[in-house]
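Tutorial, part two.
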Amino acid sequence: MERFGSYQLLEQIGVGGMAEVFLARHTGVEGFEKDIVIKRIRPHLSATPAFVEMFLAEAKLAAQLSHPNIETIYDLGKIGDSFFIAMEYIAGKDLSSIIPRAKKLGIPFPIEYAVKIASHVCEALYWAHSKTDARNNPLNIVHRDVSPENIRVAWTGTVKILDFGIAKAATQFHETKAGEIKGKVVYMSPEQVLGHDLDHRSDIFSLSVVLYECITGLKLFNGTNDLAVMNTIVKGKIYPPSYFRDDVPPQIEAIVMKGLEKDRNRRYSSAFDMHIDIDQFLAGHDFTPSNVHLSNFMKQLFRGDIENEQIRRARQQTPGAPPPAARPPGEDSLDEGPRPMTLNVSDISDGLVIGFTTEEIRILKRLAARGDQTIEKVVLDIVTHYLKYQRET
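Running the prediction step on this input gives:
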C-alpha cells in the first residue's frame, strides 16, 4: 500500500462519512518501528475549506489532550490533497463489538466490568472537560460523540476514549449529509437532539446511555428512523435497568438513572461526581475488577481475534513466510461446547469463565433460588467444598 511520508499504510481497517482509517507503521532511524492508526480525510471533505478549517482546529485541540484514558494524537499532516491524522494504535475492541459478542456467547456483561469501564471514561471526560489554556481560561471541551464505537478496551484491559474533539468537526459541519451519523443518534443527549448549546453534561448523558446498554444488552432508544429516535430521547420513558436485568445493584441503578436525567440540571454536575459514585460502589463490593480482570475478560471473548492479530503481525514482520492458519473472522473457542457463564471471585487474581450446559444452569438456578443466593455463590460453595474434600482425602 502507499506511504504517507514516514508512515507505511498496511491495511484499511475502517471507513466512515468523514475519513478512511488505516493501520500503518511508522518507521524511523536504526530500525525503529511503531504501529499507528492513520485517519485520512475523504477527498470530498478535503476539498471543502469550511470543513478543513474546522477539522484542523479540532484536531489541534484534541492533540493537547494527554491522558492515560484518551487516545493519543501523534501527528497532523497533508500528503497531496489529503489531510491525515496519525493516532495511537490500540490493539483491542470497542464496546460496539464487545457488547454483542458477550450477548452472542450468552454471557451477561458483568456489571462490575461495565461500571469499571465507565469509571475510566469518567476520568478521561472530567480531565478534558476541565482543560484550560495557558492563561487558565477554560476550553469548554465537549466530546459530543460518546458512544460504544468510541470507547475501546485494549487486550491489556486499558480503556481509551477515541476521537476526542474530532467529533465536533464531523457533526457540526453544515454540509454533513443526512444519515452520515446514523447509529450515533441513539447516544445523543436531549439538548443535543434539540440543537441547544452543549456543555459537559451532554457527555455524561451519552456515557450513561452506553452504560445502560452494557448492563442490559439493549439499546436504550429505538425508532424506525432518526426522527423517531430523537423523539424518544426527548419524550420517551426510560425504564430502570433492573426492569430488564434483576441482578442490578440499587446503587448502580441510581447512578445510571441520575446520568440519564433529561433535565441536565438534575444530572451529575461533573463526570468526576459520577466517577466517585462508581468507585464508592466498587470499593464496598465483593469484587473489584482491575485492568487484569478486564484483560482476561477480553481474552475470553476474543481469543480467536487475538490469535489472528498475532498471525497478522508475524506475517508483516516476516514477508514471504508461509502464514499459520488463521481462524475465520470472529470465531472464538468459546463458541464451541457448553454455554459459558462468567464467574467473578474476589479471592482469585484472574477472572474465570466456566462452561455449563443449559441443563446444568437450570439446576444451578434452582439451587440458588432455594438458598436465596446468587448462582456465582452456589458455584463458589461447590468448588470450596470439593477442594476441602480433596485436602482431607
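The two ends are 64 Å apart (CA to CA). In part three we will examine how such features are distributed along the chain.
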